[in-house]
Amino acid sequence: MWQRQVVIVFLTCISFSKTFKYQVIPENEDIFQDCKDQPNGVYGIGTLLDFSEITYETVGQSVILKGNSRSLWDIKSKDRVQFELRILEYAWGDWQPTLYSMKVPDFCSKMYDTDQYWYKIWLSNLKNLEDVKDKCLTPGTKYENGNCNMTVVFESYLLMYGRYKGEVKFTAFDEFNKPRPIKICFEARIELQRLS
What we know:
Helices cover 16% and strands 47% of the residues. The strands form 2 sheets. Strands 1, 2, 3, 6, 7, 9, 10 and 11 form an 8-stranded mixed β-sheet that branches. It has a 3-stranded antiparallel β-sheet with strand order 4-5-8. Strand 4 and strand 5 form a beta hairpin. The protein has 5 helices and 11 strands; from the N terminus they run αβββαββββαααββββ. It has one domain: Ganglioside M2 Activator Protein, Chain: A. By secondary structure, the chain is an alpha+beta fold. The radius of gyration is 19 Å and the shape is globular.
């Protein structure tokens, strides 16, 4: 009984707690880098998407992505794609895990969900959204990007500062739920600027 009361008090305190608003500032204009020290069979973002027609422009503290990208990853249209995101903080000379992570076991079912960050930042700016919304990451899919502002603003109950990185992993599974041999891992290093 007392545990229930503690949980209620804790949740009440959280509901009245102040949130802090942050803006994400990319460390590199290219935004994405391949993950370091990965095992065999794990490849970088260049195996997922062709960015050869993409340009990045820094405007103030924002990075604007322009041009077309094309899906390259050798997966089948019926594969289940798993998405994982981990946020790490640079502290004590190394990257440390934080409380922030997410795993989407069936990314293709959520890829065009308008409530997701990746949709708000990237996919909502596609000129050919209607043509690609049923294709997930199928090889050859061309994404015609409008002016895509890669600036992210979010709120947190935690006070945060310093350098962070988001590490993204994609794994495809065949119809027998067996992982495909080529996995994807890339990261974006950022600085957080507190807005409020």
